[in-house]
Amino acid sequence: MLCRYTYTLWIHVGYTYTLCILLILAAKQNLSEDGINEIIFGGDVSFAGIIYYLKRIENCSYKESFEKIESIFKQADDVVINLESPLGDVQNPPRRNDETKDLHLLAETESVQSLKSIHVTAATLANNHILDFDENTVNFTAQQLLQQGIAYSGVIFGNNSNDPQVPVMLDKHNVKVALLSYCMEQDGCNDSREVSNISPAIYSPEAFKRDIKYLKSKQEPDIIVLYMHWDMDCGNFKEDGKNNRVVLYLQQFVDVIIGTHPHLKNGHYYVNNTLVVQSLGNLLFPLRGTPFKIFDADGVNQMSYEEQSKKVYAMVKKDKNSSAFSKIVKIRFKKDGIDKANSMYMDLVTDISKKKCLYIRPTKSNTTWNVICASDDDQCLNHD
Ligand SMILES: [Zn+2]
Question: Which of 213, 302, 303, 309 is the most exposed place for a label (fewest CB within 10 A)?
């Protein structure tokens, strides 16, 4: 009798144990339903400059910059960002491509691990800083991303720039999302291309048409997303969706256009069924007004750190720095397009902790997602 009781008890324990394991495994995976693919898109990321120095001198870690948003990112099937600095040896930087350029961004190789830890699964490199240093640096950066399981988009290898761009495919729950990225020619993308065999993908209507044709013939995507590195650094868009000619052209072919590069948050809108986010702003980036040159690779031994640190602390703490404000968008895709009622944005701000480490947090204490272009959305530029 005792034996039978023990046997039954063990069966129960066994079942419970198996059930627990299955539940844990299920919790580790995203539980989006079949037919729904949710992707978070974030803005500009560079661990160069002040972020590198705070890590080095104040003992900040790259990971702690993201601690307040990590769980938010992990809710999505994929997370995409714009990685705006190559990786390499910051203390002994490689050769610069263009000495006359004002600013050269380079981040420590280990910083890429923090992207993986917050569930970034793809990065666009089609920007005006990816080629600040020699070609090997771009190759190295691409390799490091892949090693962390992060796909990259928007780099053309080889000097035959007529080759189509290889799309990144984010294929989850039976919804295939293709990602293409381009840099428009402002602020130096074209210049970097002229001196190198590797270049960020440069936007032209012809290149875009060629890439779309290639994409559709090879992958048959359900959804196409574009990352556009456009407008001016610190610029403000003057046009809205009603008359931006590039947007009016692109929206015929794609479902989403995500804008980066201005380092300031800007509005969003739908044109027909295409979502346009003009500029997400920074996700984590040296803030506007930070003494860049003092904090760049050459400034290592020249700066008066104490003085600069105080300045930066005051500037960020007052929350007056416009480049500290940004947003992320979480878009729910179905096979036939965007599920508008379930596509959201969240406002973020870069703050500085008591320990003097930069970190990102939602602007409101309770994390709030807002439906994009709902009737009360004051960032929507073009309500239907
Ligand atoms: Zn840029």
Answer: 302
Distance 1 CA to ligand 1 centre (A): 75
Q: What is the 41 CA–ligand 1 centroid distance (Å)? A: 16
183 Cα to the center of ligand 1, angstroms = 9
Cα(347) to centroid(ligand 1), Å: 21
Q: What is the pLDDT of residues 164-221, one digit of tens each?
A: 999 999 999 999 999 999 998 665 677 656 666 788 899 999 999 999 999 999 999 9
Whole-model pTM: value is 0.85
Written as one string, the DSSP assignment of 241-262 is TTT-HHHHHHTTT-SEEEEESS
For residue 317, give the nearest of 371, 285, 353, 341 by alpha carbon: 353
Fold designation for 36-371: Purple Acid Phosphatase; chain A, domain 2 (3.60.21)
Question: What's the pLDDT tens digit per position in 236-294?
Answer: 565 565 678 889 999 999 999 999 988 888 899 999 999 999 999 999 987 766 654 44
| Cα–Cα distance, 134 to 196 (Å, whole number) | 8
Ligand 1 centroid to 25 CA: how many Å? 39
- In the reported structure, the alpha carbon of residue 371 is separated from the centroid of ligand 1 by a whole-number distance in angstroms of 27
